[in-house]
């Protein structure tokens, strides 16, 4: 029978949401506001409260490698902070049998003025290692970090990659019974990421337990033997890795035949010259959003011109449901529109070479300027979604799994003659 090292019973974490009227800058005001919140709780008033976690129940066995996945805001990091005793749960209990170490942010505690050698001792102490432990593992840490030639250089002169390598090398040589890891394997180059994953596998092979949060499904599949899927603070799946990833993918995007694009938030990190904007998109010649390997995707896009503009192209970027790219395509024939008009065009792209699974589509309207660079006019990150099933009766198709998917460049989009509505 497996040894239970952690038992989570009815864990919940509630945060009080303070309105702008309740915010205060002075110490007395903060105390007064805290008193009001306590009074609300005493009266069982749940207003302005947000449950980041609620009714979380599961057990962790010795040697488990558990991936905790879910969309942004699902409660993953909050759960790890509760496990790490960084924050206390509002309700419920956690029974732990063994020593816990957390790796929630690589490099926390590094001092830029100190050398790599000095920071190994400093960071190791912060992470809970004794000086004797650090000295016994010092050479292994340096070898793992691959930066032995710069050990006596202040880390402020390190590149970001060198910084990350040293930080993870220290954290990777902790000796806990339960290691909690939050997204840190997403850093560094591919070779070093694989080295880190190998180290994590070694840790679990020694009978220790790993709880790992990531949005990278490839690393979850490589490292974990079990997956817990969170959604809005609740556990919606606990079991097989591939089945859990499919639940996460399918839960990540609700697919609709028609989407109003006006209300979808545009990216804030890029400049858009919105001389033409996308209004809506609709899948055509379909009764649902599911395709097989013999069907192409046709969609009708409605767009409005703020001013007269020509030589506008549409690019589609097809993404897996975890927002990693699967492929892209672009129109050969440009769009030209007059000021103040709204038009509709039907586009087609060849999706038949996609593996079974759930996909999102990002739409980009752009114009190539005189300098040969793209002028972004409008970008909709998740314009619509669709699902690919295997061909009916096909026995040679790949079973759905993220590890088989690769990057695909689609054929160029075809476009029907635009139809002006206004």
TrEMBL record:
InterPro entries: AAA+_ATPase (IPR003593), ABC_transporter-like_ATP-bd (IPR003439), ABC_transpr_TagH-like (IPR015860), Bact_Polysacc_Export_ATP-bd (IPR050683), P-loop_NTPase (IPR027417), Wzt_C (IPR029439)
ABC transporter domain segment(s): 37-257
Transmembrane spans: none
Gene Ontology molecular function: ATP binding
Xref: CDD domains: ABC_KpsT_Wzt
Protein's recorded name: Polysaccharide ABC transporter ATP-binding protein
Keywords: ATP-binding, Nucleotide-binding, Translocase, Transport
Keyword Magnesium (UniProt): no
Species annotation: Metabacillus endolithicus
PANTHER family, per the entry: TEICHOIC ACIDS EXPORT ATP-BINDING PROTEIN TAGH
Similarity field: Belongs to the ABC transporter superfamily.
SMART domains reported in the protein's UniProt record: AAA
Record carries keyword Cell wall biogenesis/degradation: no
Xref: Pfam families: ABC_tran, Wzt_C
């Amino acid at each position: 029978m497996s040894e239970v090292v952690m038992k989570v019973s009815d864990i919940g974490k509630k945060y009080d949401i303070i309105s702008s009227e309740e915010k205060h800058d002075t110490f007395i005001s903060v105390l007064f506001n805290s008193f009001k919140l306590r009074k609300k709780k005493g009266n069982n008033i749940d207003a302005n409260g947000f449950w980041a976690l609620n009714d979380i129940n599961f057990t962790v066995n010795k040697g488990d490698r558990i991936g905790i996945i879910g969309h942004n805001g699902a409660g993953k990091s909050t759960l790890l902070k509760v496990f790490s005793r960084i924050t206390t749960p509002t309700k419920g209990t956690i029974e732990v049998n063994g020593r816990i170490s957390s790796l929630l942010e690589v490099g926390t505690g590094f001092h830029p003025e100190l050398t790599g050698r000095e920071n190994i001792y400093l960071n190791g102490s912060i992470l809970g290692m004794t000086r004797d432990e650090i000295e016994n593992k010092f050479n292994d840490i340096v070898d793992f970090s691959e930066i032995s030639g710069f050990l006596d250089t202040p880390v402020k002169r390190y590149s970001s990659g060198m910084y990350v390598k040293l930080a993870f090398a220290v954290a990777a040589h902790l000796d806990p019974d339960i290691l909690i890891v939050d997204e840190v394997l997403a850093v560094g180059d591919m070779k070093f990421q694989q080295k880190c994953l190998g180290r994590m596998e070694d840790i679990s092979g020694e009978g220790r337990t790993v709880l790992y949060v990531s949005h990278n499904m490839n690393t979850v599949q490589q490292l974990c033997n079990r997956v817990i899927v969170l959604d809005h603070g609740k556990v919606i799946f606990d079991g097989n890795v591939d089945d859990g990833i499919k639940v996460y993918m399918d839960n990540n995007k609700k697919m609709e035949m028609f989407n109003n694009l006006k209300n979808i938030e545009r990216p804030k990190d890029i400049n858009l010259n919105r001389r033409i904007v996308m209004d809506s998109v609709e899948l055509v010649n379909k009764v649902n959003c599911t395709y097989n390997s013999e069907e192409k995707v046709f969609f009708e896009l409605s767009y409005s011109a703020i001013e007269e503009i020509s030589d506008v192209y549409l690019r589609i970027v097809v993404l897996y449901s975890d927002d990693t790219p699967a492929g892209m395509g672009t129109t050969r024939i440009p769009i030209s529109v007059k000021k103040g008009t709204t038009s509709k065009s039907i586009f087609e792209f060849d999706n038949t070479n996609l593996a079974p699974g759930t996909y999102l589509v990002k739409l980009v309207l752009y114009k190539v300027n005189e300098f040969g660079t793209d002028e972004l006019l409008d970008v909709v990150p998740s314009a619509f979604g669709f699902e690919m099933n295997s061909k009916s009766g096909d026995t040679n198709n790949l079973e759905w799994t993220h590890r088989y998917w690769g990057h695909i460049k689609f054929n160029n989009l075809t476009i029907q003659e635009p139809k002006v509505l206004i």
